Amino acid sequence: MLLPDFSFEQSLLPPDARYLLGIDEVGRGPWAGPVTIGAFLLDLQSFSPDEFSKINVRDSKKLSPYQRQSIHEYFVKNNFQFHTFSCTSLEIDQQGIAACLQKLILEALIFFQSRFDYCLIDGNYQISPLSSKGVSGKAGQGILSVIKGDQKCFSIAAASIVAKVDRDLQMDQFDLQFPQYGFKSHKGYGTKQHLAALHTHGPCLIHRKSFEPIKKLFKSI
Questions:
Q1: Which of 26, 88, 149, 163 has its CA 20 to 30 A from that of 34?
Q2: Mean pLDDT throughout 56-84?
Q3: Are 152 and 81 a contacting pair, CB within 8 Å?
Q4: pLDDT tens-digit series, residues 121-176
């Protein structure tokens, strides 16, 4: 299993970088619910890779719900700085998933604009510097995409955990509103249980009408 390696993460940064922002998304592929990104700020002057290794910070997909929740509580208790941002299923249908993710990343960069020196984003995004968007920030701010960054970088892995915990909580709340779909168990992803519920009940308000098989089902309604 590939685990975060701070020496790799550090090699991506200029030597004078102190505040590192990690960004990751969850919920790109589900049939229902929001897409969410997490943004996690590390102060490299006080950051301890051994601490994050000890509490098992890694790609959120490699952790159980209990592990993610425990780590999230540790982050809160120890006053780490992070924030999450979401687009609804309606916004995804209207704007497209790619445009929503670009918008959420920009929102995160603006939210933390004066607080980070460098930003690492999971994936393969082409993000222009904040200055090109008319947003003021620190001089010398850099933004870099890292493929499989959630597996390689503590900052991105931490962002993936807070995003996953937040989105799962949203889906648990939707489960109370729409109990017939089983959102609490599958979180809106495509499972046999979810597909069977769709065929029985049809789509609900939080289903992504632009995604298959929802798109096909809406045409038949």
A1: 149
A2: 97
A3: no
A4: 999 987 765 544 545 555 457 899 999 999 999 999 999 999 999 999 999 999 99
Residue in 201, 220, 211, 199 with CA at minimum distance from that of residue 93: 211
Listing DSSP states for 90-158 in one string gives: HHHHHH-HHHHHHHHHHHHHHHTTTT-SEEEEES------GGGGT----TT-EEEEETTHHHH-HHHHH
Q: Is 161 helix (H, G, I), strand (E, B) or coil?
A: helix
* CA–CA gap between residue 22 and residue 212 (Å, rounded): 31
Tokens found for residue 23: 């960004």
Rounded CA separation 203/196 (Å):
11
Q: Tell me the pTM.
A: 0.93
How do strand 142-146 and strand 35-43 relate by DSSP bridges?
A: unpaired
Q: In this model, does residue 181 exceed pLDDT 60?
A: yes
Answer whether 130's CB lies under 8 Å from 136's CB.
yes
SS3 (DSSP) at 40: strand
Domains by residue range for the chain, with CATH: 6-178 (3.30.420.10)
